Amino acid sequence: MPIPTLPGIMVETVTTPRITTRVLTSGFPDAIPVIFVHGNASSATFWEEMMLALPVGFRGVAPDLRGYGDADRSAKIDATRGLADISDDLAALMEKLGIEQAHFIAHSLGGSVMWQFLMDYPQRVLTATLAAPGSPYGFGGTKDVDGTPTYADFAGSGGGVVNPEFAKRMGEGDRSTDSPVSPRNVLNGFYWKPPFKATREEELLSSVMSEHIGNKEYPGDLTPSTNWPNVAPGVWGPANALSPKYIGDVSRLFKINPKPTILWVHGKDDQIISDTSLFDVGFLGSLGAIPGWPGAEVHPPQPMVSQIRAYLEKYKAAGGNYLELELPDTGHSPFIERPAEFNAAFHKLIQGQG
At the topology level of CATH, where does 10-150+242-350 sit? Predict the structure, then answer.
C-alpha cells in the first residue's frame, strides 16, 4: 500500500536510464530546485514537512533511493562502487528532470551519498546541507580522525554487523513494540531523542520498513573474517556500500571546483552518528555488549563526529567553506525534532544569506 502523503506533495514515477523510482515534489516546476536525499531505513517520506516549508521560489524534489521505498527492486546497489550507484542515480534524475544545478539536503546515509556526489558532480551542487551525515570515511572499521582502517579486511563494517532480527522484522512489516529491535522501537529510540514522538509516526514507520530486504539488499551479504568481530564486508547492498573498504579516496573533495558551502547540522545526543555510536561494533565491544573485544588499541570506537569535523576543516583549509550547527537535546533527525532551528539555518543558506 502506498504511504499517504501530505497535501501539497505531488507523487510521480520517474524513469531514467539507470532506475525507475517514486519521486515526491513540491512547489512550482520553474522554481529553484532543492533535492532531498534520505537516509537508511527511510524513504522520501521523511522529507515532506521540510519540502512544504521551503521558502517561496524554491521547489522540492525527493526520490526514493536505489534499494528503498518504491524504487525498482531489480536495481541493486553494487557495494564495490561504494555509494557511486546512488550518486550516479541522482545525476541521472537531474538530467531527466532538466535540472542543471540544485541545492541539496541529505540525512544520515544520504549525507554519505553527498560526500560522493560532491566529489563526482561538484558543478551540479549550489549548496549542501548535511543532517547527521555519516562519516566521509564510511561506517565502522576505522579508528582515528584520519579514517585509518582497524584491519586490512575492514572487519567490523558492512552487512555482517547489521542486527539480523531488526532486518527480519522490517521485512515482515512488524509494527509492534514487543522487542527492543522492532522497527517502531528503533525509530522512537534512535531516530530522535526520547521522549520525542513524531506527529506522523505511522507514515514514518512505514517508510522505515519500505527498505528492500534481502541478501543483495539490506542487510546484504558478508565475508567471514579471522579478525574481531569475525565479519568483513560483502559486495551487495547499502550497509556494505557504507564500508570504508569501498569508499575510495576521500581527499578528492579538497580538490573539487567549485567548492559549494556545506552546512552540517547534527544533534548533540545522536546515538547513531556519534563518537560513541550504539550502532558501532567498536563502541559496543568496549561496553561488553559484543564478546571478545580486542581493546581500544586494536578496535576502538569509530570517532564519527570527530572525523566529520576534521574532514570539514581540511575542506576549509583547501578553500571551501562550511558551517556547523549542533542542536542540544536532539538525536539523529534534527530536521524532524527541531524544524524551526533547522530551517532557519537551512533557508538562510539556500537564500544566499549564509
Answer: Rossmann fold (3.40.50)
